[in-house]
Amino acid sequence: MAAVCTSPGSVRLKFLRMKPGHGEILLTEGDPRLREDEERLIEEFRRQLDEGMWAAVPVTQPGGARRQAQMVTSYAEIPAEAERVIFFPRAAGG
Predict the structure, then answer these.
(1) The dihedral sign for the CA sequence 33, 38, 42, 45
(2) 64: Cβ contacts below 8 Å, ≥ 6 apart
(3) In what order do the strands lie in the sheet with 53-59?
(4) CATH number for region 13-89
(5) How would DSSP label each residue in the chain?
(6) SS3 (DSSP) at 63
(7) What are the residue ranges spanned by the domains of the chain?
(8) What digits encode the pLDDT tens for the residues 24-64?
(9) Which H or E run includes 58?
(10) What is the pLDDT of residue 62?
(11) What's the pTM?
């Protein structure tokens, strides 16, 4: 994995994969404003979808304790303010 800089004001986007019995596994992270990081994020996003994963962005409602997520099917759909994208396997048996 490439070196990760944490300069002040940097925006970090983490890609996590849900793995039964292990919780969230970090796949990659980066600052989508940096071309090199964004290219790596896009590549990983596509790879996960090609492997049959679904992608969701956690959504927080002000003052709400309820957990919700927004499904995304392309990298461009990830909200600019998102801190993480969670990949998870599709349900078996369809």
Answers:
(1) negative
(2) none
(3) 23-30, 13-19, 84-89, 53-59, 68-72
(4) 2.40.240
(5) -------TT---EEEEEEETTTEEEEEEEE-TTSHHHHHHHHHHHHHHHHTTEEEEEEE--TT----EEEEESSGGGS-TT--EEEEEEPPTT-
(6) coil
(7) 13-89
(8) 999 999 999 999 999 999 999 999 999 999 999 998 777 76
(9) strand 53-59
(10) 72
(11) 0.79
Rounded to whole angstroms, the Cα distance separating 92 from 94 reads 6
* Cβ neighbours for 71, distance < 8 A, ≥ 6 positions apart: 54, 55, 56
Query: How many CA atoms within 13 Å lie on the side-chain side of 24?
Result: 9
